[in-house]
Amino acid sequence: MLQIFHAARTRSFRLLWLCEELGLPYTVAHEKFGQPSPEFLAVSPLGSFPAIRDGEVAMVESVAIMLYILGRHGPTDLAVTPDHPDYGKYLQYLVFGEAGTAMWANPIMATKVWGPEGEKSNWTTAFCATRLAKQLALISEQLGAGPYLLGDRFTAADISVGYTIGMAKIFDVELSSALVAYLQRLQARPADQRAIAVG
Predict the structure, then answer these.
(1) Which residue, of 41, 76, 111, is where some domain finishes?
(2) What domain range is 47 assigned to?
(3) Are residue 143 and residue 93 in the same domain, yes or no?
(4) What's the Cα-to-Cα distance from 198 to each of 94, 127, 134, rounded to whole Å?
(5) 184: in domain
(6) Which of 23, 117, 155, 178 makes a 20 to 30 Å CA pair with 149?
(7) Is 28 exposed, middle or buried (0-12, 13-18, 19+ CB in 10 A)?
(8) 58 with 91, same domain?
(9) By 3-state DSSP, what share of the chain in percent is helix, strand and coil, each rounded to 5?
(10) Domain boundary at 76, 99, 125, which?
(11) CB contact at 8 A, 155 and 78
(12) What is the model's pLDDT at position 171?
C-alpha cells in the first residue's frame, strides 16, 4: 500500500488530497518538520517533503509523485490524456504549481519563518514577491475561462496550483478576488477537507 510521509503545511498535502480525490487507500507516516525519523530519511535523504514508498518504489518531489500516482493508479478524470486538446495546458499548470509558482514563494516563506529579526524582509524577498505576484496573476487570468484551470473540469493541476495558493494565503501574500474564490471552491471539496483532517 502507498505510504506517504507527511508533515503539516508541507507539499505532502498535495498527495493526501490527490489520494482522497481518487479514493486510493494509503497510510500516513506523520513526521515532525525538522525532526526526521530514520525511516523518512531512508526515503528522503535530504529530509524534504513529500516522500512516498509504494512497494519497492521510493520517491520524492511532489509533482513527480502526483504523475506517478495518476499513472500507476489511474485511469482517472483528474488526469488529461495526450489525445485531449487541453493536454498541454494541463501539464503546464500541473508543473507550474511548483516550478513556476511555489519556487518564488519558498524564499519569502523561509525568510519570514527562519530569518533573524531585522532580516525578515530584504531585496531578495522583495524580488521574489514581485515574481510571485506575476505568476499568481497568470493563474488568475486563466481562471477567467471557468471555475477551474481547465474551465469546468477539475484536474490534478488544480491540486498542484491550489496547494501553492493556499500556502501563499497562509503567509499573507495578497491574492486577487478570483484566486480567493478559486481557493474557496477548492477547499469546499470533500476530498480536500478529508485531506486536511489527516493532520
Answers:
(1) 76
(2) 2-76
(3) yes
(4) 23, 35, 32
(5) yes
(6) 23
(7) middle
(8) no
(9) 60, 10, 30
(10) 76
(11) yes
(12) 79
Does the CA dihedral 168-174-176-180 come out positive or negative? positive
Cβ distance 27 to 3 under 8 Å? yes
What are the pLDDT tens digits along the chain (199 aa)? 999 999 998 999 999 999 999 999 999 999 998 899 999 999 999 999 999 999 999 999 999 999 999 999 989 999 999 999 999 999 999 999 999 999 998 888 888 888 899 888 888 888 998 999 999 999 999 999 899 999 999 999 999 999 999 988 887 788 999 999 999 999 999 999 999 999 7
Q: Which one, of 121, 108, 101, 107, lies nearest residue 165 by Cα?
A: 101
Residue 81 lies in a domain: no
E strand or H helix that includes residue 169: helix 156-170
Instruction: Tell whether 22 and 104 lie within a shared domain.
Output: no
The predicted structure's pLDDT at residue 34: 86
Residues 22 and 49 in one domain: yes
Which triple of cell numbers denotes residue 75? 485511469
Q: Are the beta carbons of 132 and 168 closer than 8 angstroms? A: yes
* Crossing angle of helices 156-170 and 62-73, rounded to 10°: 150
| 29 and 103 fall within a common domain | no
